[in-house]
Amino acid sequence: MTSQDDLLPVGLEDALPARARTITSAMRAVLDAMDAHGYDRVRPPLVEFEHSLAGRMDGVATRRMVRFTDPDSLRTLALRSDMTVQVGRIAATGMASAPRPLRLCYAGDVALLRADQLDPARQRLQLGAELIGADSVAAASEVVSVAIDALRAAGVTNISIDFTLPDLVDTLAETSLPLDADKRAAVRRELDTKDAGGLREAGGEAYLPLLYATGLFDDAIDKLSALDAGGALASRIEGLRAIATTIGDRARVTLDPTERHGFEYQSWFGFTLYGEGARGALGRGGTYTIKGSNESATGFSLYMDPLLDALGGPEADTRDRLFLPLGHDRDVAARLRAVGWRTVAAVSDGDDAAALGCSHRLDGAEPRPL
Amino acid sequence: MTSQDDLLPVGLEDALPARARTITSAMRAVLDAMDAHGYDRVRPPLVEFEHSLAGRMDGVATRRMVRFTDPDSLRTLALRSDMTVQVGRIAATGMASAPRPLRLCYAGDVALLRADQLDPARQRLQLGAELIGADSVAAASEVVSVAIDALRAAGVTNISIDFTLPDLVDTLAETSLPLDADKRAAVRRELDTKDAGGLREAGGEAYLPLLYATGLFDDAIDKLSALDAGGALASRIEGLRAIATTIGDRARVTLDPTERHGFEYQSWFGFTLYGEGARGALGRGGTYTIKGSNESATGFSLYMDPLLDALGGPEADTRDRLFLPLGHDRDVAARLRAVGWRTVAAVSDGDDAAALGCSHRLDGAEPRPL
């Protein structure tokens, strides 16, 4: 009976009830946590001018966006592949006159024309918060805190957070570890892949010790500090220590100062979030500058698929279900729903309470266990 | 300072905080009301094979869908323009073996390449519920009830519901008011536009009295019944009366038996929902047959934009906001958030509680009004 029309394109899928219910509950928990920290939700559209989406931030790959021609303007439109750029646009336009710092959050689907090899999904549910107008240690501490609270609210356990310094190479290359501009890209790349041999070949031998200033935060930050003879990193190191202090026992903190993957547009501070049960990162964040408006900002994004992994996958719905037989009293049923009962009404003689997953049956005005 | 990149394409817009907040709260209320009636939410993807979306139901205009080529399958993909067809597909595939009747609900964005002249929006937030496996009077009564409960939960007042008989002409043409097959389309069209002159010209003079069986339900259904000398509509009229009885005083019921606009795929029963404050319909529903699987079903869809009109537009956020000065006790702040306070933390000396919209300021462990 299955025809081609029953199939979905690769990388796109339905969330059936158990999964959809877990998504909704995790999303509400994350949004409510961000709201409690004063972040106001905005809802940008699914589609924008391609040029606008692509122009607002580095690191957005336009080639992988779904693009099409607008029959009205004859310009190219694109399906959003990242909501952060949309929030940056809102901050610079519709909310340009709102007081700073401006706290905005979002949750919505983003899409790609073609997925990457590691993650076949072409649609992802992205959730995040942006603190616009600040990229200080205080801003970073708050954003890290909001991210951890959001994950905890959703039910993630054993959270770890991995700090990085996205502009580390640029900073050192200008100061204590001079490096020609044309070598920096190669050195960054080899540091990112942790390839000691490649790093030597790329002329970055002096950067080798950075590969070992990684691991549990307290130990790794001491190593990084010891390497920073010239003090070029002093303010960054002090900043990282301050942020780590505010986390307390809510998450395990690690440091990987040369990690750059996923931090194409961040400035001095970046972080990756992990949780028990999820193979990959739950999300990323950091400080950055909004392209176009040049406002400084700090924010993070989470993705629902790894978040669901961290929650142990979809949870079955174990709530009571009250079967309402044909001819039941509608007012009684409405009153029971108002106090929290979930009802399933018979629409024919053949409807079977047990088959429909009901735990109770309405008997007069009384719900009775099946 | 405004550049072209600051603009959004025609028919697409941001929901800024007040509007986004009202949308979120209305959406949660609608989904919770559907959930209380036993409807399980599903989340189909934004994009499917065009052929699959277009093939599953009549009345879906593929020409207005955003379409593009899938680089993987080389088939044409489309952005969904209606989620009902996706729920029909889910019922026929992923949930084919779930017991019937199957209750599913959904909420999500749908998009059009080009809007229609009456409504410039190219993206709409659609919400709805589908009862799959039944299109009886009992099924229709339940679905109407869920729709009204959902609107009331969202805060809509003075709800009215307009009943129609989508297959009225086909039914009469086969029985008491014979009409050649080639004239039916024209007669349907003239009845739909309530054009008495056009109806005569189209050869539908016998159908003229139907134009007057409209208005408040009790009166109009009597008129329709009086017209139905042959009894061809008897079961339909009895059905409508039964459905109307279950509504009670929750909504004003009207009848417009020849209304066909928006009911291209419904069978014997259709309804349109209205509420105070909204110019147009809040949503529509009715009985239908799922194309492909041929299952009978009853459902309805609401749209967020008219729903917001009916709610009087976006509501300002009047909740308390607690300003947390620099150096505040983070544990105290966390405890206050846990009991419902919404906090806004200073990230620099310059942050001003009043300018940031705060109503209170944390003083030691105590929130004090500003």
UniProtKB/TrEMBL annotation, chains A, B:
Tell me what this protein is called.
ATP phosphoribosyltransferase regulatory subunit
Any single biological process term in GO: histidyl-tRNA aminoacylation
Q: Which Pfam families match?
A: tRNA-synt_His (PF13393)
GO CC, any one term: cytoplasm
Q: Does the record carry Glycosyltransferase as a key word?
A: yes
- The record places domain Class II Histidinyl-tRNA synthetase (HisRS)-like catalytic core at 11-307
UniProt: L-histidine binding residues:
82-84, 126, 130
Q: Which GO terms describe its molecular function?
A: glycosyltransferase activity; histidine-tRNA ligase activity
Q: Which organism is it from?
A: Qipengyuania flava
Its encoding gene is what? hisZ
Keywords on record: Glycosyltransferase, Transferase
**UniProt keyword Glycosyltransferase present:** yes
